[in-house]
Amino acid sequence: MRRYAASTGCFVVPTGSKVSANSELEWRISTSLAERCLLLNLNITQIRCYVVLKIILKSFPNPQDEINISSFMCKTVLLYCIENTETSAWKENNLFTCLTYCLLELHSCVQNDHCSHFIIPDNNLMAGQFTAETKHELSKYICEFIQNDGQRLLGIDIDDLGHRLQVKLNRAPHGVYYFRSSLEISEHVLTVGYKDIAHVISDCHQFVLDNLHSKNITTMKQSVSKLMTFRDNGNRLQHAAFKFVAPFLFTTYGSALASSSIVENNQVTPEELVWLSAGLNSDITSSRLKLASLFYSTGDMEKAELILRHIEQQYDSHPVAPICRCRETPTLTVTAEFKRVCCEQSEDCIKHITAFCVRLIYTGRDELCSL
User: Fold this and answer.
1) Burial class (CB in 10 A: 0-12, 13-18, 19+), 368
2) Its pTM surpasses 0.90
């Protein structure tokens, strides 16, 4: 590796030293090929050490953004530490010790304003990089990481480092969320709750469609009748179930009845329209698509077009989340706008921010019925 690095040569780059009076006339020697060779031969613990070192410096709370410890300096410090220790020390179970060693080396460089280039030692990478105030704050920050036995690492949010370390140390279960504010907690709880409501609605509707697929219209009628008893005689939870699920069953039941009427006499009866209208506001799309498909099947293109235009005007892809139950599990994509609506409105907003899928089936006379 040393022979290869020595034989690769170097580049010159038109970049001068920050502390030189003639920086615009100077060129910097670049040994990037040799450095690439060295980095490609790092083991996984050395790479992890380098990444965590960069994250620690990235989390440095400098309001003036004056920190100038570059990735190149981190790599240089790491290479010196590797050179000065036994290879056997760089193992996964010794990661924190290796990281501490790198931090000590970096602290020494900051204190002395000197970090020698690994291949060209006369080149000081830290020359003119820090003000006295930044140097003091940076030294203090690095010392805190060294002195508290790694506890500061558990509080770093960048790349979710703190939580991942807690999982690694068995201090937290996988999948646990850590929130910085009560607003984040409420946003997460409400969003998950509304997603679950949408999934349950989809599951209930899927059960009815499965029965309909076996042409058991009577079973669907019984489901609708049972749901009506929830509305009239049920408790608070049953009332809530009725409120969410009933509109979907009404439009599905109305569609099933209307499909039979269309086959027989190519029209939809007033009773069937009542059932369809009762669930018209179930969500943004599905109930209206069912109605539009029935008008299409009877040849009433004007009403079908009117309904489709209304859907197009109402559908806003930012807050509205499409949910599909045609697959094994329902899918619902959550956007930032969806979360905002969940936090600002009651659960009744489900019908304004979800778009359920519609199943199209043939009724036996080359006509479509949407369920």
Assistant:
1) middle
2) no
